[in-house]
Design brief:
The structure is a single chain. By secondary structure, the protein is α+β, with helices and mostly antiparallel strands. The protein is built from 6 helices and 3 strands; from the N terminus they run H-H-H-E-E-E-H-H-H. The chain has a 3-stranded mixed beta sheet. Strand 2 and strand 3 form a beta hairpin. Helix 4 packs across helix 5 and helix 4 packs across helix 6. The relative contact order is 0.17.
Length: 171
């Protein structure tokens, strides 16, 4: 196994890639993840996800536009470099311009630690205010979730584990 197989970690330093590679070779990556994230969340349907997302949204982005739809989406594939999607659609209805914000989370995250789900939700909610992945976007993510960057790294390590070894949380 080479570091070329660490596609989710390619933007990280060679040191981090080497550490993950070593844990893979020693078969200790699952143990590392389970020590930090011992269990999965209990949000198993779209209704519960909507409540979860709106609670976070109302805490940090009260004045932003409402979300017309929040759901787990089994059509989102991490292969396409997407864990969740925020879509914004504007339509003319009568003489008015109506806009809709939708948030979709990859169905893969129905069975994941809550910290990873929260990180993805925060990321997609940040797009309500900041469309681009720029400094302001990441500053907003950190405002909503102070350990955002660590969770993003751990999520990428988790995705590496899923792809190369398998699920650590069983059925």
């Amino acid at each position: 196994m080479t570091t070329a197989s660490l596609k989710y970690l390619c933007a990280y330093s060679p040191t981090i890639q080497s550490q993950v590679q070593q844990m893979l070779e020693q078969k200790t990556l699952a143990k590392y993840l389970l020590s930090k994230y011992p269990s999965c969340h209990q949000i198993s349907n779209d209704k519960a996800l909507r409540v979860y997302v709106n609670d976070i949204k109302n805490q940090y982005l009260k004045k932003s536009s409402p979300l017309s739809q929040v759901k787990f989406d089994d059509k989102i594939h991490i292969i396409n470099n997407a864990l969740g999607l925020h879509t914004y659609v504007s339509r003319v209805q009568g003489g008015k311009l109506k806009s809709k914000n939708e948030l979709r989370i990859g169905a893969l995250f129905k069975k994941s630690p809550e910290a990873f789900l929260q990180m993805i939700v925060v990321h997609e909610l940040a797009h309500l205010k900041e469309k681009e992945h720029n400094k302001a976007f990441y500053k907003l993510c950190q405002h909503m979730l102070p350990d955002y960057h660590q969770l993003e790294l751990d999520l990428r390590i988790y995705l590496t584990q899923l792809e190369l070894v398998g699920d650590i949380y069983g059925d």
